[in-house]
Amino acid sequence: MQHLIDTDDLSIEQIKTIFKDAYSFKKQLPPPLLRQRLIITLFFENSTRTRSSFEVAAKRLGAEVVHLDPAKSSTKKGETLEDTFENLCAMDPDGVIIRHSQNDTPGRLADMELTPVINAGAGNYAHPTQALLDLFTLHEFFEGELEGLRVAIVGDIANSRVASSDIRLFKRFGIDISLVAPKPFMPVTELPKYEKIEDVIDEVDVIMSLRAQLERHKKPIFDDYEEYASRYCITEDLLEDRSILVMHPGPVMRNIDISDDILDDPRSLVIDQVRNGVFIRMAVLKHLILDSQ
Ligand code: CP
To answer: From the CB of 48, is ligand 1 less than 6 Å away?
Structure first.
């Protein structure tokens, strides 16, 4: 049984196979490979893209999807998450997709070895399918030439599970990563670090902007979002005519993370990332449910 807790669970060969399937699904939708399969989604944190993308992916493959709303589940009556999971597994799903605020929750459930577990975002540690779709979007744009690509990750890196998974995955494919953040948003790292975007702007091919998560900070670092945006928002004035691509995992805080004009600019890949997310998740579901059985 294979799980996807972080991208390290996949070998380079497996990732290449997932990309090959994603390209093929993007070109032409496949027959219902997961017909009569059942997938349960369990999102303990809010989600727009990941939950709907997984559901669309599963349905495009012909699977049935059941969503358990944790706010209305019996975890609210004191049932442990492990017991909830075991009870759901008694209904014989072919996989459970979970998002949770704790870093170790998906891994703990995977260790029970009852059904393939897919991490749809856990704490600040891992969001493997986001990292895969981010890498796939770069792979598509740069026609597979990832080695030596220069990516700056900008924003609240320390609190970002996307940054964390992107960094681990991108490094395996030879991508050079720089981090740009104010000191309190910077994780402990051996990667090149900058406080100002201007210090790295002429050295990068791609900027991965992250959502400013000022609400997560116990001690305010900026007086308000306007002050943060004045230093870290990706704007036309900042990029000028440089051919730098701009990415963001979403949700984007307009004019705080990325300006309106850059979101409408052909250099923005933000919507391409969402579109590719469905094909990557289709390929991940196929890999875990069909190919790894
Ligand atoms: N990228 C991402 O995880 O978005 P959602 O929180 O909307 O799922």
So the answer is: yes
Bridge partners of residue 150, in order along the sequence: 176
Residue 97 and residue 42 in contact, taking contact as beta carbons nearer than 8 Å? yes
Q: Is the CB of 121 under 6 A from ligand 1?
A: yes
Task: Report pLDDT digits (tens) over 226-247.
Answer: 888 999 999 999 999 999 999 9
Domain 129-269: CATH superfamily, name plus number: Aspartate/ornithine carbamoyltransferase (3.40.50.1370)
The side-by-side arrangement of strands in the sheet containing 117-122 is 64-68, 38-43, 95-100, 117-122
Q: pTM for the complete prediction?
A: 0.96
- Superfamily of 7-127+274-291 according to CATH: Aspartate/ornithine carbamoyltransferase (3.40.50.1370)
How would DSSP label each residue in 158-184?
TT-HHHHHHHHHHHHTT-EEEEE--GG
Closest ligand 1 atom, residue 250 Cα? 1
Q: Which amino acid is at 176?
A: D
Q: Decide: 247 and 206 in contact? Cβ < 8 Å.
A: yes
Is residue 151 classed as helix, strand or coil in its secondary structure?
A: strand
The answer to whether 221 touches 214, Cβ cutoff 8 Å, is yes
